[in-house]
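Notes to self after the Tuesday call (sharing in case useful).
The group wants a holo model before anyone commits to mutagenesis around the pocket. I volunteered. Ligand is S-adenosylmethionine. Logging inputs and output together so the record is complete.
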Amino acid sequence: MDHHDIHYDEGFIRFLEEMWGDGYLSPGGAAEVGRLLEGVDLTGKTVLDIGCGSGGITAGLAKDFGAAKVVGIDVEEPVCREARQKVLALGVSDKVEIHQISPEYPMPFEAKSFDIVFSKDSIVHIPDKESMCYESFRLLKPGGWFVASDWLISHDDAPSAEMVAYLKLEDLDFGMASPTRYRTALQAAGFDHVSLRNRNRWYFEEAKGELARMMHDRPRFDATMGKEEIDIQVELWQAMLVVLEKGEHCPHHFRGQKPMG
Ligand SMILES: C[S@@+](CC[C@H](N)C(=O)[O-])C[C@H]1O[C@@H](n2cnc3c(N)ncnc32)[C@H](O)[C@@H]1O
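Result:
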């Protein structure tokens, strides 16, 4: 992978961490991870974290949520490097491994290797949600849970003009899918007890605060990626708030259980 293929380079990682906290490349920090994991006991469990980013959550699954073993996977080199440093810094290298993998399936793990397949706001980069659900199902032990958060679009029609404008500014390889598509993909893969929880109103409020922080603390943000890039990010957040307010951009939590067999 050459440098031009990297979406999460050092500057962008610094910017997102300035916004969301050290080791966090998605909204809500440890509190939102806790809400995502409500009712799921990780104590002594083996966990796969798809799209581990810079590793704050991955390390936290062992350090704060009691997982016995966590395997964080990501496709980009800078985030994997940061995640390995985070794992060392938080003193969980006996429990947490970070693997840089290719996006192709099957992933380099045996079937039925994990009690929990976890992901926070990374599947938006995986266009084929159906294959991702089948692969997660394969990797889970019978009775295991798939527990994820992701950024969704509320419908299966063409995106609105406002959504098109927002996605253009994102300039990431975003593949947003609808709640219906996720539910169908999870059920088709074989998951039981599939449930989805819309986080749109929560993130709408959160994102207003994020934009306010960026605007009121410009020097700190400018220091991460430069003034011009932060001007673009301010514009992006403004465009995102429009589609959040409409409900069209709707982050969700979702989960499903692999039957006992
Ligand atoms: C928004 S970040 C979230 C990172 C982390 N889960 C967090 O919440 O802090 C999305 C991550 O997904 C990773 N990613 C992109 N495509 C991927 C793929 N096909 N498989 C796994 N991870 C991928 C990106 O490299 C990036 O680190």
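Two things stood out.
The mean pLDDT is 96.
The chain has one domain: 3-156+175-200+252-257.
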